Amino acid sequence: MNAQREFHTASTLANGKVFVTGGYNAGGFLSSAELYNPSTGTWTTTGSMNTARIYDTACILANGSVLVAGGQSSSSNVNSAELYNPSTGTWAITGSMNAVRYYHTATTLANGLVLVAGGYGTGSSYLNSAELYNPSTGTWTIAGN
C-alpha cells in the first residue's frame, strides 16, 4: 500500500481490483483510498473520502459503487455515509444513518438494499438496532431491533 493504515476497509470491485479506504496511522485518521491490482501487483491512489474514518463498513452496491457508512472520525462517532464511484474515482455524500454507529456490520441484500446492524453508538453504548439503506433514494429506514 502507499499509506500505512490500520482499522481500514477492503472490498473487491467488479473489475477484480481491491478497494482499500480509510483507517488510521501515525498521522491520524485517514480519508485516503487505494486500489490494488492483483494482476500487476501494484497499488494506485484514488479519490479520498469527504470524512476520514475508522471502524466503518464498506459494501459493494448492485451498480458497482461502494457505500461507506458510519465509523469514528477524530474521536467522534459518525452516522454519515458516502458513495465511491469506481468509474470516476470520486466520492459523493449520501444520506446519513439514523443512528451514530461504529464496529457495526453491513450486508448488501439480494434486493439491492443494504442492511446495517448493531455496533456501538453514542457514548460507546451497544446497539441492537438495524437500518436499511436504499441506493435508489439515498435514504435510511429503521429495520427494527
From TrEMBL:
Presence of keyword Repeat: yes
Highest taxon of source: Eukaryota
Keyword Repeat: yes
Pfam families: Kelch_KLHDC2_KLHL20_DRC7
This protein's UniProt keywords: Kelch repeat, Repeat
Chain coiled-coil ranges: none
PANTHER family listed in its UniProt record: KELCH REPEAT SUPERFAMILY PROTEIN, OS02G0202900 PROTEIN
Entry protein name: Uncharacterized protein
Protein source organism: Adineta steineri
